[in-house]
Amino acid sequence: MPLRIGVLLRVCCRCRPWRLTYWLLLLLGLAGPVIPGQGQISEPVFRLLRPHARQAKVPFALQRNLIVVTVLLNGQGPYNFLLDTGLTISLITDPEVGRELKLITAGRMMVSGAGEEKAVEAYQVPAVAVELDGHVGAARAPFLMLSDDVLNISGYVGVPVHGLLGSDVFRNLVVRIDAEQQQLVFSNPDRYHAPRGRRWTSLPLELDGYKAYLTLPVQLTDSLQLPLRLVLDTGAGHALSIETTSDPRLHLPPARLRTQLGLGLNGTINGFLGRVQALQLGRYRVGTLLTSFPDSADVAGRAETFRNGNLGFELLKRFTTIIDYPHNRLLLRPNSQFRDPFEHDMVGFDLLAFGPNYRRYRLLRIDPGGPADQAGLQAGDEITSINLIPAEFFSLTDISRMLHSADGRQLLFVVRRPGTDDLQTARVRLTRQI
């Protein structure tokens, strides 16, 4: 399942019975900085920790189109967090972290997001010291902490994930994301000089409620091109998401696939996959872009700034990306993945990783009539091998790449049926469905 972690609490790839405290206004991007001494927390400032440093390099792991960074919280860890420009306040999804660190909470609330389940309980954590690789950090960053790990992001990403770092990381630093080298470069904005060269393109960012928006021309059909306002969302694993209810001129494409689009705070986000003809990113035109069209019921009723959708990391990973909030711009330079095709998974099932090392894999859902269904696979089956190679030899990212690889490719799965020791074999032919 393509992940839409970046829009968990803004709904995003992918019902609001809460009390509108300052914390939720901050989460939604509707509250501004707080003046110390007025009974609230001060605005978190992420900075370079080495005095007089111009920049700092921090490694990351790219897992299923999501940026996973290693952090220390209150000097302890390490913990794995996703880096998410689309989330206004950071989120601890694993409450065990709070118990380990004996975090002090300041209040309780019920929060909801995308999905069909009931609201979940969360706690305010006013001040946590955060460090990324010892080079970048904030002395007092606010968090929300879920009471239960209802998201199970670890199972969908295939590595332990303890939470998400939001847009406050980007507010006072220039952040370069090199997806090929899997490296972040944080720079002091006062001493930063943007790279020059004709391969770089610069796009204006509009900062609104601590989120960054781009207005980009999208060629929807031969005769219809619209400027769409899109959230810059590194926490979304898809390339592009468009909300058709945001403009009466927006419609579902004729060729589309009904599917589950992603994971939200309260369950799966349903909708359609289709393609737009092109998206213009400065001097670069990206064609036949795989696009999510979430159901209106899954994205309606949000108290936030108007947008038509969001731009995710499946697209951004094809560039060296510089996110420059202090100078209100996004800089892009294509990398070696720029011309790779945009593909949906060609097998028709959703996987969940589990076990001590997240190297066991269970089928969560089978698309009716899809390649996996036709091959006899069933929800609940555990994959024991792929092409006669034990499943534990593959990461979840490895398997995801395999399932997006080539139309017509055949894969041999050996699975164990739930509740038995029986092994079944299934030969699946990957089929491009959209």
UniProtKB/TrEMBL annotation:
InterPro entries in UniProt? PDZ, PDZ_6, PDZ_sf, Peptidase_A2_cat, Peptidase_aspartic_dom_sf
Against SMART domains, the record matches this protein to:
PDZ
Name the domain of life: Bacteria
- Any keyword Hydrolase? yes
Q: Which keywords fit this entry according to its UniProt record?
A: Hydrolase, Protease
Q: Which SUPFAM superfamilies match?
A: Acid proteases (SSF50630), PDZ domain-like (SSF50156)
- Residues in PDZ domain copies: 329-418
Residue span, Peptidase A2 domain: 79-169
Q: Which GO terms describe its molecular function?
A: aspartic-type endopeptidase activity
Asked if Glycoprotein is a keyword of the record, the answer is no
GO BP term (any one)? proteolysis
Q: What is this protein called?
A: Aspartyl protease
What lineage does UniProt assign to this protein's organism?
Answer: Bacteria, Pseudomonadati, Bacteroidota, Cytophagia, Cytophagales
